Amino acid sequence: MRKSDTQFAALAHDQTFKSKMHHKIGSVLVCGKQVIGTGFNKLTGYGSGIRYSNKWSLHAEMKILHFVFDAPKAKGLTLYVVRRGYKLARPCPHCQQLLSKSSISRIVYSIDGTLEELFL
Ligand SMILES: [Zn+2]
């Protein structure tokens, strides 16, 4: 873990207040010491994840992926994924698979009131 992790995780936690989902999850994408994108989970008319009637839940990790494509030369990005109250927010296997194809090399996620890291 890095010193700045708690700081960026707190920013991701701020994003959870924008989510209208039952499990409120926020995400922050960081390149070096700079935030290049923020997101939160929401319902959309497309995507993957859990389906609610004709809507899909767009995972907070996916909401942020377009920032990766906006910065194609950025390498070694860190993604912070935090659930309200720092509950479990480990990216699901589907998101992990997609993220592993991006320039994100490290994910910091909340679990049981603390943070864990995952290297892709
Ligand atoms: Zn997911």
- Based on Cα principal axes, name the global outline: globular
* Cα distance spanning the termini: 15 Å
Radius of gyration: 13 Å
Specify the number of helices. 4
Bound molecules: zinc ion
Whole-number average pLDDT? Answer: 86
Order of helices and strands: HEEEEEHHEHEE
Beta content = 35-45%
Low-confidence stretches: none
The assigned structural class equals alpha+beta
- Strand ordering within the main sheet: 2-1-6-7-8
Helix content range of the residues, please? 10-25%
Biggest sheet features: 5 strands, mixed
State the total count of DSSP E strands. 8
Structural notes for this entry:
With 120 residues, this protein is α+β, with helices and mostly antiparallel strands. It is built from four helices and eight strands; from the N terminus they run αβββββααβαββ. Strands 2-1-6-7-8 form a five-stranded mixed sheet. β4 (51-52) and β5 form a beta hairpin. It binds zinc ion.
Give a short synopsis of this structure.
The protein has 120 residues and is an alpha+beta fold. It is built from four helices and eight strands. It is globular, with a radius of gyration of 13 Å.
Keywords, please?
single chain, 120 residues, alpha+beta, 5-stranded mixed β-sheet, 3-stranded antiparallel β-sheet, 4 helices, 37% strand, globular, binds zinc ion
List the helices and strands and how they pair.
Blueprint: H1 5-15, E1 25-31, E2 34-40, E3 42-44, E4 51-52, E5 55-58, H2 60-63, H3 65-70, E6 77-83, H4 93-99, E7 104-111, E8 114-119
Parallel strand pairs: 6-7
Antiparallel strand pairs: 1-2, 1-6, 3-5, 4-5, 7-8
Bound molecules: zinc ion.
